[in-house]
Specification:
Immunoglobulin-like, 5-stranded antiparallel beta sheet, 406 residues, 10 helices, globular, Glycosyltransferase, alpha+beta, 3-stranded mixed beta sheet
Length: 406
């Protein structure tokens, strides 16, 4: 995430873009349908299915429909059956992103599907979701406190000098003349205090960390799947304009790590319950309230630091997010977190070459070239991913991007 300490800029054009509202359609369907569904003249029907996984059946479908630049419809299907009715007067090509959850509201299946509107024979279609991978290859990565987040945030408590009268950290954000309350910054301050408490045993660090964790929890936003999100209360007027309240995968992931550590270091079960809710929110699709997950063609799963269309795919933010998913996976053994971790690693294994300029790394897939500091972060992150997975591509690109600095 980009945090800078210089002043703001005009935001009229960005606000005008943000004013183009996204239509959200929530659909609940009851009853029983067998086989394909007849499509009437004024609507197109798609039936969504998924195979049983370890005895768990599809219980909820979240979906978005739209092209790469905008979401036309987004919502939830309750079933079975899971039948999506679309108006017949939309684009000629349907682009559906569907996410399947079991009864525990854990992400188990995904699918990106394209098809012509209205099947030629006048009948509806069936789209079958693909299961997320689990237990494939490489051993379980090392648990907390033996990976990157242990040391990465230790210095931030020393920067926790600007506060409200209630003791809440303030931070200067790019595009704002005055400091703001940033959940992203607060997460880093909390993690720093937890890490330094482990090192020093200072009660002041533990007290500060739990005080701020409770402050965040008291202001968490509800999401689909009975999740909780830690949305920012300020507009983000950067390379993509995000009006408040907005959530990002990097911040949401840090919040998961905060709650995991709060549970480890306090033993209070409410932090573990909150971590589970935050993890569920991390799998809500972009296009639904506070959603940050997006599935692309080929079942590629990504977590967006700056949710937008077209998907930006910010590299450092997504990798930091998946480190937090790793935290939750290790602490709980939740197979849903393992699936998300493995699915994202598989995505990055395929897409990492797209982040190479030939002489440097890209910050994102919009073509923004990384600054020197972000390029170094990418190198460090690839080193951690190679340690965690043993996959050769991460070490190869770590070495390649390091060579660009010579």
């Amino acid at each position: 995430m980009r945090h800078r300490s210089h002043g703001g800029r005009g935001r009229g054009a960005a606000r005008a873009v943000a004013a183009l509202a996204m239509a959200v359609l929530a659909i609940t369907v009851c009853g029983c349908l067998e086989g394909l569904v007849d499509a009437s003249g004024d609507r197109d029907r798609i039936r969504i299915e998924a195979a049983l996984l370890e005895g768990d059946a599809l219980a909820t479908v979240l979906f978005t429909v739209g092209d790469e630049s905008a979401t036309a419809f987004a919502g939830e299907l309750a079933g079975p059956p899971f039948v999506l009715d679309l108006p017949a007067d939309g684009d000629s090509i349907i682009r559906l992103r569907a996410y399947g959850y079991d009864e525990a509201r854990r992400l188990r299946w995904v699918r990106y599907w394209e098809g012509a509107r209205m099947a030629p024979d006048g009948r509806g279609r069936t789209v079958v979701l693909d299961p997320l991978p689990v237990g494939e290859g490489w051993p379980l990565p090392p648990p907390y406190p033996d990976h990157h987040l242990t040391t990465g945030f230790r210095p931030f408590m020393l920067l926790d000098t600007l506060r409200t009268v209630e003791g809440i950290p303030l931070h200067f954000i790019w595009g704002h003349d005055e400091p703001v309350i940033s959940r992203h910054w607060i997460d880093k301050v909390i993690l720093s205090n937890f890490e330094n408490w482990v090192l020093s045993g200072a009660d002041s660090c533990r007290t500060r960390a739990l005080f701020l964790t409770d402050w965040l929890l008291a202001r968490a936003e509800p999401t689909p799947l009975d999740g909780i999100a830690f949305a920012e209360d300020f507009d983000y007027p950067g390379h993509v304009f995000l009006p408040a309240p907005w959530n990002g995968a990097f911040t949401q992931g840090l919040s998961v790590s905060v709650l995991v550590r709060a549970h480890i270091l306090s033993g209070d079960e409410r932090y573990l319950d909150a971590a589970a809710a935050a993890m569920r929110a991390l799998t809500v699709p972009v296009g639904l309230p506070q959603g940050v997950a997006v599935v692309q063609s080929g079942g590629r799963l990504w977590f967006e630091e700056y949710p937008s269309l077209p998907a930006q795919h910010t590299l450092n933010g997504a990798v930091y997010c998946i480190f937090s998913v790793l935290d939750y996976w290790h602490h709980t053994g939740d197979p849903s977190a393992e699936r998300c971790y493995r699915a994202f690693v598989g995505t990055l294994e395929r897409d990492l070459p797209r982040f190479d300029t030939g002489s440097w790394s890209y910050y994102d897939l919009w073509g923004v070239v990384a600054t020197e500091s972000y390029h170094q972060q990418h190198i460090n992150q690839l080193g951690h991913l190679h340690e965690q997975t043993g996959l050769p591509i991460f070490d190869a690109y770590r070495r390649l991007w390091q060579s660009y600095q010579d």
